[in-house]
Design a protein that fits this description.
Structural class: alpha/beta
InterPro entries: Cas3-like_dom, Cas3_C, CRISPR-assoc_Cas3_HD, CRISPR-assoc_Cas3_HD_sf, DEAD/DEAH_box_helicase_dom, DEAD_box_RNA_helicases, Helicase_ATP-bd, Helicase_Cas3_CRISPR-ass_core
Strand content: 5-15%
Protein name: CRISPR-associated helicase Cas3
Radius of gyration: 30 Å
CATH topology of the largest domain: Hypothetical protein af1432
GO biological process, one term: defense response to virus
Largest sheet: 9 strands, mixed
Keywords: Antiviral defense, ATP-binding, Helicase, Hydrolase, Metal-binding, Nuclease, Nucleotide-binding
Distance between the termini: 64 Å
Strand order of the largest sheet: 6-5-7-4-8-9-3-10-11
Shape: globular
GO molecular function, one term: ATP binding
Length: 922
């Protein structure tokens, strides 16, 4: 309709003034312009109806049960959710909001809601805060207690992602003209704006079926955990109800006839968005079912894990076991049992890095394919997910029809485009992603409540929890505090944990400290929903293994003359496969070059984090093919790399040479030696052999370490690890694991007398640094559930509004790092507006084709953080700015020599050695 279509419809029953208020408008660029609008009453009804559909078809039974407990039943919780969703935009029924669209002023004036006077302070009453303020007198008039009112008001006030500030409820008193009060108290008699809000509120109560819960909730303490979850659900309902394709603008005042059409649209909305309802995971019961899932019979660890979750009531499960014992399969099987027994409808699996997440994505897909029947939506959640071909294939080719078809016993795994949008990834039923995704659930970022919605009704599995430093551990513990309060079951996996770390993780989830005493190894620790802690040692099927330990001094800064080179070359000549792990990329690149000079072409390989996506995937695929379980094994190969080789790669080598690192990481690396039973080894290499290098001993003092190792790990842990490992010529695994880790991370004096003064000094420095990291992290995490109260100012120090999962500001804040930038590596093309990505020539000024996108995404690499400032000068090609996956993609164009300048630096890239900074800098 146009603005002249009037504020009066003849021949009809008079329309209540409230039904003329608008919620959304648009102006089409036609001649003359076409104006459209959607009534506020209709939008509130849309949101309430979407909430009902979410409750009926998407919320898990466990979430419904939890939300319903304080209200006396799930039906009351459903009605409260619909009521809150329907009231979220009540603050739009104010002059401050309605004055914005002048072509609707005449109909508002005719309805008795004039907005003719200028309101220069209109911005002081944003509609979300106005919703929080204006709902309060409506609830007070219905007998609600002050605490109950404040709790609900904060939920409405936070529906745009930021919760209200302290004192917001005084705004109508300070600026009554913005609320249409004209000097009257909020909700006073004779106020047409208050009357309009009253009419809208009554409409929502009727549509939501909330008449009964309106009396119950007024005296109910929901608690901060439920309030945060409900706030997230309200945001979600609003997002869906605001989709104009699903809910077209009415362009007329609201009337009762609209309700029927809106009910139909709400019922169809979730189907059109690709939501398939609550997944039915089934459950692993007995060895045959486990073997069907994973292709092998369960071992002792896996059997005891299943027994622990079958006997418990859900809560926290902590599995500590050596590498290669099947912790992942134990966790997935346990997730099935927990989901079936408690009514959960999905899983989130979090890992330390994008590379480990990509590997777990493949394993999770295979697991889901064995669950059938049904459709299982699987999402890969990290900033480079679109660069993973398997995920893109699932997204493009695995999508089902609009109406799901029963395919018998076959499980159908798919991805849905809606869930790949900003801030939506965790909402998919099954999600594999980096740990950042869950840590952001306690960061002071916009829409933090949505991440809690994404975890509600899931079983959370967090792998390699030993990999997080003091800073990230603050976020992890706060996550566990909230998950415990929300009764979301969590499974933690670790090769081993220092006793103090283990105790703090358990305390965070349980809500209280518990003396653990001696913990065996391997072990399973469970925490019940009421906080009871039980630890069970695992009687493993395999016997202990003795690992030969050798120590090799080398010049910390000169790899070209190191004795390791000749040793590695000789072992490879004898047919052994050797894995060399360095602590920095530059050190790995130099080692690779030095070893390659001594070995035949094609027998030395390099892998680190500064390869493009395509090159890294190719290298990882080659590793899995030749050194993975059941692979076509080669001989005499040398693989040099960095920490990417110590995490989640199921690969097996005859010998490991490793830089000294903190003892838990050295043990993790040792897990890549003699990992696969039954593998044929060359003569002389039938026993596990580990060479520890990356240090130089001194006859009078402590050893020296490469500067890069100290920068990454700190000298304190390196020194304590050296004190233990350099005194031994063998390790017995897994027996020695807990004592070694406890000694390095404990307080006992393990430093040799000659090192004592230096060791004491670096220990003080290390402790000070850990405390400082924790202090910095505490600035950026939300309050714990016991102190969050009414959620007011939950994000008082705001990190920002992460539009995408790779937002550098937020990622850096969660990981305590300098923001880094990803670039697409290209070579010069035949013209300035064409560049070559791999073998594909791509236009920089025209929209990319699917093949172009594939080539560009495969060419992406993350730059070192010290290049971030220089990289900000790189532009996003004009032709890519509207493409959802390339719109923020900067390009680094290399010359014909494979090099280019970036600021003061000279950069080189090859598919053999990856990205290298060859010169420049301060």
């Amino acid at each position: 309709m146009t603005h002249n279509d009037g504020a009066l419809i003849e021949g009809q029953i008079p329309i209540p003034p409230a039904f003329w208020l608008w919620a959304k408008t648009s102006r089409a660029p036609t001649e003359p312009p076409t104006y459209r609008w959607h009534p506020l009453a209709a939008h509130l009804v849309d949101a309430a109806l979407v909430a009902q559909q979410l409750w009926a078809g998407w919320l898990s039974p466990s979430t419904k049960r939890w939300l319903g407990e304080p209200l006396g039943g799930e039906d009351h919780a459903r009605a409260l959710f619909a009521l809150l969703a329907g009231c979220h935009d009540l603050g739009k029924a104010t002059p401050a909001f309605q004055i914005q669209v002048d072509w609707l002023h005449p109909q508002l004036r005719d309805a008795g809601l004039a907005v003719d006077k200028p309101l220069p302070q209109r911005s002081k009453a944003p509609h979300a805060l106005a919703s929080a303020a204006t709902v309060q007198p409506l609830l007070a008039a219905r007998g609600w207690s002050e605490p109950a009112i404040r709790g609900v008001a904060a939920i409405l006030g936070g529906h745009h992602g930021w919760f209200p500030p302290l004192g917001y409820e005084r705004e109508p008193i300070k600026r009554p003209e913005l609320y249409g009060l004209a000097g009257r108290p909020l909700g006073g008699a004779g106020d047409p704006w208050s009357a309009a809000r009253e009419r809208l509120f009554d409409l929502v109560v009727e549509v939501a079926g909330a008449q009964q819960v309106l009396g119950l909730a007024g005296t109910t303490e929901l608690g901060s955990a439920r309030r945060l979850a409900l706030a997230g659900f309200v945001i979600l309902a609003d997002w869906i109800a605001s989709n104009e394709q699903l809910f077209p603008y009415l362009c007329l005042p609201y009337d009762d006839a609209y309700l029927h059409a809106a009910q139909q649209r709400a019922a169809e909305a979730l189907v059109q968005l690709g939501w398939h309802g609550v997944a039915n995971l089934g459950a692993v019961v007995g060895a045959p079912a486990f073997e069907h899932r994973f292709g092998f019979s369960p071992n002792a660890l896996q059997r005891q894990t299943l027994e622990a979750v079958e006997q418990g009531d859900g809560g926290l499960v902590l599995i500590e076991a050596p590498m290669g014992m099947g912790k992942t399969e134990a966790a997935l099987a346990a997730a099935e049992v927990l989901a079936t027994r408690q009514g959960h409808g999905g899983a989130f699996i979090g890992l330390p890095t994008q590379a480990t997440s990509n590997q777990m994505f493949h394993r999770t897909r295979r697991w889901l394919e064995q669950l059938g029947p049904g459709t299982f939506v699987l999402e890969l959640a990290h900033g480079r997910a679109q660069q993973v071909p398997a995920f893109r294939d699932l997204l493009e080719n695995g999508a089902p029809s609009a109406v799901d078809v029963d395919e018998g016993d076959i499980a159908r795994v798919t991805a849905e485009a809606w869930f790949t949008g900003p801030k939506r990834r965790l909402l998919a039923p099954f999600v594999v992603g980096t740990i950042d995704q869950i840590l952001l659930g306690t960061a002071k970022v916009r829409h933090v409540a949505l991440r809690h919605v994404g975890l509600a009704g899931k079983v959370v599995i967090l792998d390699e929890v030993h990999a997080y430093d003091a800073y990230m551990s603050v976020f992890l513990r706060r996550v566990l505090e909230w998950l415990g309060a929300e009764r979301i079951p969590v499974i933690l996996l670790s090769a081993t944990l220092p006793p103090a770390v283990r105790a703090r993780l358990i305390e965070a989830y349980a809500g209280h400290s518990t003396p653990l005493g001696l913990v065996g190894y391997p072990s399973i620790t469970t925490v019940s929903t009421d906080g009871h802690v039980t630890t069970t040692p695992v009687a493993t099927d395999a016997s202990s293994v003795t690992v030969r330990l050798e120590h090799l001094d080398e010049d910390p800064e000169d790899e070209s003359s190191m004795p390791l080179l000749e040793m590695v070359a000789q072992m490879a000549e004898a047919g052994a496969n050797i894995l060399v792990i360095r602590n920095t990329v530059a050190r790995a690149q130099r080692t690779y070059r030095a070893v390659a000079e001594r070995r035949p072409m094609g027998t030395v390989h390099l892998l680190h984090a500064r390869f493009t996506t395509a090159d890294r995937l190719r290298k990882e695929s080659w590793l899995a093919e030749h050194f993975g379980r059941g692979g076509t094994r080669l001989s005499g190969q040398v693989v040099v790399g960095t920490q990417v080789l110590e995490q989640s790669l199921d690969i097996d080598f005859d010998v490991l040479a490793t830089d000294l690192a903190p003892v838990d990481l050295v043990l993790q690396r040792i897990g890549r030696v003699h990992r696969h039973r039954g593998t044929r080894r060359p003569v002389g290499f039938t026993e596990p052999r580990v060479i520890v290098t990356g240090f130089t001993r001194s006859p009078t003092g402590p050893p020296a370490f490469p500067s890069g190792s100290v920068r990454v790990y700190g000298e304190h842990l390196l020194l304590r690890t050296a004190a233990l490992l350099l005194a031994r010529d063998s390790l017995t695994l897994p027996d020695d694991v807990p004592s070694l880790v406890a000694a390095v991370y404990g307080d006992d004096d393990v430093i040799a007398p000659a090192w004592h003064d230096h060791g004491a000094r670096v220990a003080v420095e290390w402790q000070s640094e850990q405390h400082e990291r924790e202090r910095r992290a505490e600035q950026f995490v939300i309050s714990d559930p016991t102190r969050a109260g009414y959620l007011l100012e939950l994000e008082r120090i705001r990190l920002g509004d992460p539009e995408d999962d790779d937002d550098p500001r937020v990622q850096a804040a969660v990981r305590d790092s300098v923001p880094s930038i990803e670039v697409a590596i290209a070579c010069v093309g035949p013209s300035p507006n064409i560049a070559r990505f791999g073998t594909t020539e791509v236009s920089l000024e025209h929209p990319p084709t699917p093949d172009d996108v594939e080539a560009v995404l495969g060419s992406v690499v993350r730059l070192p953080s010290y290049l971030t400032e220089a990289a900000t000068s790189l532009a996003v090609p004009e032709g890519w700015r509207r493409h959802p996956w390339l719109r923020r993609q900067r390009v680094l164009v290399l010359g014909l020599d494979g090099e280019c300048s970036l600021g003061y630096y000279r950069i080189r890239y090859t598919d053999v050695e990856g990205l290298e900074v060859v010169s420049g800098g301060a």
